[in-house]
Amino acid sequence: MAKDLFSTRRMEALTDGVFAIAMTLLVLDISVDILGNVSSNQQLINAFTSDFGSSFISFIISFLLLGSMWAVHARQFDSIKFADRRLMMINNFRLLAVVLIPFTTSLSGTFPELTLATMLFPLNFMALTFLSSWEWSYATSNSKLYDKNELSGKTINFLKVKNKIFALSSVIVTVLSFFIGSWAFILFLPVSYIWMKLAKRI
Amino acid sequence: MAKDLFSTRRMEALTDGVFAIAMTLLVLDISVDILGNVSSNQQLINAFTSDFGSSFISFIISFLLLGSMWAVHARQFDSIKFADRRLMMINNFRLLAVVLIPFTTSLSGTFPELTLATMLFPLNFMALTFLSSWEWSYATSNSKLYDKNELSGKTINFLKVKNKIFALSSVIVTVLSFFIGSWAFILFLPVSYIWMKLAKRI
Amino acid sequence: MAKDLFSTRRMEALTDGVFAIAMTLLVLDISVDILGNVSSNQQLINAFTSDFGSSFISFIISFLLLGSMWAVHARQFDSIKFADRRLMMINNFRLLAVVLIPFTTSLSGTFPELTLATMLFPLNFMALTFLSSWEWSYATSNSKLYDKNELSGKTINFLKVKNKIFALSSVIVTVLSFFIGSWAFILFLPVSYIWMKLAKRI
Amino acid sequence: MAKDLFSTRRMEALTDGVFAIAMTLLVLDISVDILGNVSSNQQLINAFTSDFGSSFISFIISFLLLGSMWAVHARQFDSIKFADRRLMMINNFRLLAVVLIPFTTSLSGTFPELTLATMLFPLNFMALTFLSSWEWSYATSNSKLYDKNELSGKTINFLKVKNKIFALSSVIVTVLSFFIGSWAFILFLPVSYIWMKLAKRI
User: Fold this and answer.
1) What is the pTM for the complete model shown?
2) Which residues of C touch D30 (CB under 8 A)?
3) 0.90 surpassed by complex ipTM
C-alpha cells in the first residue's frame, strides 16, 4: 500500500554528510594540545618526528582511505536509482563503520604498542569494505533498484568480483597487523593504489 | 502577497546535515581519553568489557535509532513536496530533538545508576517520535503540500496509525526505564525491528 | 569573458551545512562534563535547576533562533536563482555570523554576570539579521539574480521593510541587555514569534 | 566496461560538507575555555586585546580564506559536469588541504613566536591553491569533463593563468612569513581582494 521504493538522493546526502564529518573529525586527533610544551623550533621538529608524527601519518592514511571508500559509494550510487527499506538499513550499517574510523584511528595512534588497539583499525576498515560489498550485491540483486541502461549483467558480476578482491585484501592487512603491528597500516595505501589501477583497466 | 509555499529541498538538506552530524558526534563520546591508563592488551579488554563497553553499546543503539528516525524522515518527505512556514518550524523542533540525542546518550552512559539520567534518553527519543508523527499529520492535512499521485487518503490514514503505534511504543520503553533502568534501552531495538517488519507488510 | 553568474545551488548547500553544524555544535556546550560530580537524582535535579539549567535554556533559544535565521535564508533563496561573486562574499560574511553563534552563546552562559559577555550574543544575532537584510537587498537589486515570475517589485519592497523591522528589533534587545542582563535573551523568542505572525499576514 | 565518467554532484556535496565543517571547526579554537579566569568586564577586554584577540583575528582570516577557496571550487565546478576516478582523487587531496586549515590556524595562534609554526598555515594555504590549480588544469584538459558551451579554449587558458597568479601570491606570503612572522597572514586578505577585483574585470 505505502510506497516501497524511494529516491536514493536523501541516502546520498546523508552519506556525503557522514563521510565529510568523519574525514574532518580525524583532524581533531592531531590538535595542538598533544604537542605539549613547545618553546623552540627544534622542539616543534622533535614533536613532529616523534609521537605527533606517527599520529599525523595515520591521520593522512585514514583520510585517504575514507576518501577512497566515499568514491566507491559515489560510483556505486551513480547507477543505483531507487532504495527500499533494507537498502537504507544496510547503508546505515555502512555509515556506522565510517563513523567508527576516527575512533579506531585514534586508538591505534594512542596505543601503538598494543596489538589489540592497532588491530581494531584494520578490522574497522575490513567491516567497511564488507558492508560496501554487501550493499552493492543487494542493490544489484533487485533490477528495480538500478538503471539497466548503465549496468549490464556482465558489469555487475565483474564489480562484485572486484569488491570481493578488495574485501580480501583488507583481511590480509588485518592478519598482518597481528605480526608486524602498526606497520601493516602502510600496506593499505599500495593495496588501494593497485585496486585503483585494476579498476581503471576494466 | 509573499510566497506561501517553498520547496522542501532545503529542509531536506538541513535535516540530512543535522542527522549526519548528530550520528557522528555520538562517536566523540567513546573517545580514547576515557580508556584511561591502559598499558596491556588485557587492560584494554577489561576497559572494553566494563564502563567503556556499556558506552559503546549505547553508542551503537543511539546510532541505529537515529539512522531509523532519519529513514522515517526521508520516507515521509519522499511524498511531501512543499513546505509552509509552520512545517519549517515543526521540522526545526524535530531537529532540536535529534541534536539532543548525543547529550542524553552521553548522560545515561555517564550516570547509569541514576534513574533520572537514564530516563532522559527514552524521553528524548519519545519526543522525536511524537514530533515525527506531528510533522506527518500536519503535512498530510494540507493537500497543497504533498503529491496526491503518491499518497491516497487511505495510505495517509494508515501511516498516521503506524506513527502513533511507534510513538506509543516509545512511551512504554520510557515507563519501563523507571523500573528496569538502562536495560530498557535494549528494548528499542526489537521495537524498531518489529516496527520495520510491520511497515514492510503494508 | 569568464562566467559572471553561477547557480545558487552550491551556496545553498554550503549554507545548509554551516547552519546544520552550528546548530549541532551548540549541544557540545551542554556536555555532561559541566554537571560535575553528581551521585544522586536530587543532585542531578539541582544541577539542572542551577547553572546547567541556564546553559540549557540559552542552548534552546540559540537553536531556535538559528533555525529561524536558516528558514529566512531558505525562503530568500527560494526566489534567488543566480549568484555573482559579490553575493557569494556577502553570503560568506553571513555564515561567519552564524558560526560565531555557538561561541557567543557559550560566552554569555559562562559569564552571565558580565554585561560585556552577555552583550556579545545579541550583537552577534544583530549582525546576522543585518547581513541577512543586506544580502536580500543586494540580490533583489539585480534583476538577473532573481526569478521575476515569483517576486514582484511590491513584494521585494515589502520584504525589505520586514527585514528592517526584524533588524531593528535585534537592536532593541541588544540595548536592553545593557540594563537587564541575560534576561534580554528571552525577548528574542516573542520578537521572532511576533515577526513570524506578521510574516504570515502578508 | 564499467562506467568511466560520473556526475560531479556527489563530489560537490562532499566538498560543500567538508568546507562547511572546516569553517565551523575553526570556531572551536576560540572557545571560552582559553579566556581563563575572567571576573570583570575589564579582564574580558584585556583577554580580547591580548592572546585571545590574535586567535580571533586568525579565525576571521582563516574563515574568509576558506570561504574564498570554497567559492573558487563552486565556480570551477559550475562548468565541470563529469568526473573520472583521477579527478575524484585530486579532489580528495584538495579536501585534505582544506581539513588541515583548522589545525595549522590553531598552531600559528598557539605558538606565534615560532617561525616554523607560523609558516605551516601559509604552506597549507599554498598547497590548497596549488591543488585547486591542478584540479582545474586536469578537468579542463579532458573535453569530456566540462561543458563546452560554457567554457571556450580562451577562457580556460585565462583561468589557468589566474590560478597560477594566485598560487604564486601564496608562495610570496609563505616566504614573507619567514621574515615578518605572523604579520604575513594579514597580507592574504589584500591579495585575495586584489585577486577578486582582477577576476571581476575578466
Assistant:
1) 0.89
2) 103
3) no
